[in-house]
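[job 4471] stage=fold_predict status=RUNNING
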Amino acid sequence: MLAGTMIWGLAIACFGLTRTLAPALAALAVAGAADTLTVVFRGAIVQTVTPDEFRGRVSSVEYIIGAGGAPVGNVESGTVAALTSPVVSAVSGGVGCFRRHRADRVRLPGLHPLPGQAGRGPHAGSCAQPTVTILRRGCPDGPGGAMDLQVTDNPDQERLEITADGELAGFVQYHLKNGVIAFSHTETDRRFRGQGIAAHLIKTGLDSARERHLAVLPYCPFVRSWITEHPEYADLIPPDKRGRFGF
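[job 4471] inference complete, writing structure tokens
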């Protein structure tokens, strides 16, 4: 998403510097594509990462940014153009946008984790394979027969992963800070759904949290429903937080 914003800034700056129609149209096309990309990514992040109880409020803020950002930008660019020139307004705005977001990428590396190189693992900033720790192995019988399941902790990606017969079958995303682990999203490959794999993954994750004396915040709906069906795990949720999650 930051890359899309940086591309938009460069395209607007190039538009301001052009003197002929064709390059100007090309720069505007690139800027439009980059802007669309950022909108799509922003919407996807809001819908897939935001905990259920905050999604309405976050969506409202996202809507205000989307609806109000353009008019505010028009006033700002128009003011600069009136005080200087349209060229200075376009170029300074584009370059300023690029430089600001480039600085954010350096200052906040956690905003742009890539596969195999997230913000705070031992391999951050490299292309090395993520560090994983095996939590549990087993061969439970599912509807499709016995499978070799292995659950691993991948701290570089901040998620617990489960493989079935060597294939990645699913994961649960988490955030660990100050002795509290917050589970935000669980996903299972459709080829492995309906075989109890997600349940095995969540049980392993919660057992590991208990062994490590971690408090649990089940923002993920699947994790909440699993704990509801297994109330013996509800004590992992801090007492003052249980009401928020319906326990």
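[job 4471] summary: The first strand starts at residue 133 and ends at 138.
[job 4471] exit 0
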